[in-house]
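Quick one, tokens below:
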């Protein structure tokens, strides 16, 4: 099981990540959630490196 509280802390400063976390997680499978989150997380890390 994923720890949503840790993910919320990570996403607090990133509106795109936060929007995923506050959407109804029940509408997605855990795998869909992780795929979307990791995609945006990786994009945000790349953006921060520029």
């Amino acid at each position: 099981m994923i720890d949503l509280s840790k993910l919320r802390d990570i996403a607090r400063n990133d509106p795109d990540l936060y929007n995923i976390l506050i959407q109804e997680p029940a509408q997605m499978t855990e795998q869909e959630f992780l795929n979307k989150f990791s995609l945006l997380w990786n994009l945000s890390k790349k953006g921060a490196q520029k």
